[in-house]
Amino acid sequence: MDDSDYLELIGEPPAKPDSAQSDFVTGMVLADFLGVSSDVVAALGREGVLPRHVPPGWKNSYAYDLKACVRAYVGHLRIKAASKMKPTVTPGLDVAKLELMTAQARKVELQNDKAAGRLIPVQDVRAEWLAAASDLRNRLLAVAPRIAASLSLDRPAASALDREIRAAMADLATDGGSPL
């Protein structure tokens, strides 16, 4: 491209820093090249999307580096397309959605475990433990009379043995049976 390829609006054509790498064009030529109106080119230039400069001697007009502008415009279109693909929601809503999805997944997991028989209802476990504890209590309380009878212990000795067994069970009940 030589100097005769430039449109002379007012004054000299734009200075070309490196003619092998850059082709400077007017806004109208760039608009035609990009397939948009010159108003769109002007707006994108004002917004800083398209790089532009005022060549020496030009007034009220800009020159655009064709390669740089095409790259910038394509990048701008990619950003716009990517922003349309992402849902615009507030961060708080994202957190709420994530919590809801986690709760729903946990609910389904529990339902599956229950259906597969891997879960036992709490009231069934509680009833079994209470029955086992009651049975253990009755068996321990029966120890003192059996030993007293088999060893022919007198009443005070049998009573002392019974008190010790009851004290041990009371200790277990109050401290949860934690070991030393």
Please explain how this structure is put together.
- 62% of the residues lie in helices and 4% in strands.
- The protein starts with 23 loop residues before the first strand and ends in a 5-residue tail after the last helix.
- It has two domains: 83 residues, Arc Repressor Mutant, subunit A (Orthogonal Bundle); 54 residues.
- By secondary structure, it is mainly alpha-helical.
- The longest helix has 25 residues.
- The chain has a three-stranded antiparallel beta sheet with strand order 1-3-2.
- The protein is rod-shaped, with a radius of gyration of 44 Å.
- Helix 1 packs across helix 2 and helix 6 packs antiparallel against helix 7.
Write the layout of secondary structure elements.
Layout (H helix, E strand, L loop, with lengths): L23 E3 H8 L3 H9 L5 E2 L9 E3 H20 L5 H25 L6 H20 L1 H8 L4 H21 L5
Under CATH, the topology of the largest domain can be stated as Arc Repressor Mutant, subunit A
Low-confidence stretches: 1-14, 16-21
Distance, first to last CA? 94 Å
- CATH structural architecture of the largest domain: Orthogonal Bundle
> What percent of residues adopt helix (DSSP H or I)?
55-70%
Average pLDDT confidence is 82
- Tell me the number of strands: 3
Radius of gyration (CA) equals 44 Å
Number of helices, where a helix is a run of at least 4 consecutive DSSP H or I residues: 7
Strand portion: under 5%
N-to-C series of helices and strands: EHHEEHHHHH
Which structural class do you get from the secondary structure elements?
A: mainly alpha
Query: Largest sheet, described in full?
Result: 3 strands, antiparallel
Number of domains: 2
Q: What is the strand arrangement across the widest sheet?
A: 1-3-2
CATH level 1 name of the largest domain: Mainly Alpha
Q: In one word, what is the shape?
A: rod-shaped
